[in-house]
Write a structure and sequence with these properties.
Layout: H1 8-11, E1 15-16, E2 30-31, H2 40-43, E3 68-71, E4 74-77, H3 79-88, E5 96-102, E6 105-111, E7 117-122, H4 132-143, E8 148-154, H5 162-171, E9 176-179, H6 184-191, E10 201-204, E11 216-220, E12 223-227, E13 231-236, E14 252-257, E15 261-262, H7 267-274, E16 278-281, E17 284-285, H8 293-296, E18 308-310, H9 311-314, E19 316-320, E20 323-324
Parallel strand pairs: 1-20, 2-3, 7-8, 8-9, 9-10, 13-14, 14-16, 15-17, 16-18
Antiparallel strand pairs: 3-4, 5-6, 5-19, 6-7, 11-12, 12-13
């Protein structure tokens, strides 16, 4: 399937199928058009989600049960398959990245399903008249029951926003902050004012791109590349029109643009030809040359391609790995 997103609560329950005979025949799964999820209070505990579909034979005896369902190109397990997989320990949880809009750019929360710790990636961070860490970022983490940050990656930031970032790192016990070389002196200056608690290690990005050697984080002069099992996510502060960075690996590749992006004619087709399976922007508007100032910021003013996602319209998006059985 060419689809790159599924309902947020279902994402971590999607299946990666390993079929040596090729693509699964549609007869091996139950095609489903609509899904009814459990109550919100249950979803807060990040449960394993499976379906239940039973069709008895004419004599009212159940002799078989489907193990897979197909919803919009993704496979999901039955409750029986899910219970057996959890019991045998064969569930392999892979990290996923949830993308959200924050002042100054896009935040990526990288965590494994059902874990309470995460890494944070900021394409940019801007200061506001209120504490951004308390009013914006902390509620996002609390809603996802995250109580520990392992590492923070920062591509750009306003100087006044660094205080918010350091407070966040202190409160969640972040052990490492990785930033671009331009921000390192300012961050060291702000960290020097922190007297309580252990200070995180500060590391600056290399000016040379790092060759990927497996899942992990690979910073470079053009941004941060996150390698997952079957997905590459490229985080960039901004994108210069006409200078699309082609993905260097096979599989799904998601480009995350932090600054508001003013599309010009041909940009989307250029990105599609470059091999991006999805492009996520903090905000998408018309080209300055093709829209009036009043039209640029109107929701729905521009019909976006299927692989382009505007966080100012959809709120959040999950990309990355899935459960494998």
């Amino acid at each position: 399937s060419s689809k790159t997103n599924v309902p947020r609560d279902l994402f971590k329950n999607a299946l990666t199928t390993n079929n040596p005979l090729g693509i699964l025949d549609e007869d091996v799964s139950v095609p489903v058009r609509k899904i009814f999820k459990p109550a919100e209070k249950l979803l807060l505990h990040k449960p394993y989600l499976g379906f239940d579909y039973v069709v008895p034979d004419p004599d009212r005896v159940v002799r078989r049960q489907p193990l897979l369902m197909n919803h919009e190109g993704y496979y999901y397990p039955s409750q029986s398959l899910l219970a057996a997989a959890v019991r045998s320990g064969s569930v392999q949880s892979q990290p996923q990245i949830e993308l959200l809009r924050v002042p100054g750019g896009v935040a990526g929360i990288v965590c494994r399903p059902r874990e309470k710790r995460a890494d944070l990636i900021f394409t940019g961070l801007a200061a506001r008249e209120y504490p951004v860490d308390e009013k914006v970022i902390m509620p996002l983490l609390e809603n996802r029951r995250i109580d520990k940050i392992d590492a923070i990656f920062l591509l750009s930031a306003e100087y006044r926003a660094l205080d918010d970032l350091v407070r966040l790192a202190d409160r969640y016990g972040a052990g490492r902050i990785c930033c671009c070389a331009e921000l390192e002196p300012s961050l060291r200056e702000v960290l020097a004012t922190v007297s309580a608690g252990a200070k995180p290690d500060l590391v600056s990005f290399s000016d040379r791109p790092v060759t990927a050697s497996g899942p992990g984080y690979y910073p470079g002069p053009n941004g941060l590349r996150v390698e997952l099992e079957s997905t590459t996510v490229l985080f960039a502060d901004r994108l210069l029109t006409g200078h699309v960075q082609s993905p260097s690996v096979s599989g799904r590749t998601c480009l995350v643009i932090g600054r508001p992006y003013y599309a010009t004619p041909g940009d989307w087709s250029e990105m599609s030809q470059a091999g991006y399976s999805s492009v996520v922007c903090s905000k998408v508007a018309h080209s300055r040359s093709t829209a009036s100032p009043t039209e640029q910021n109107l929701p729905g003013a521009e019909a976006l391609p299927d692989f382009v996602f505007d966080l100012s319209r959809i709120g959040s998006l999950a990309v990355g790995g899935a459960n494998a059985y």
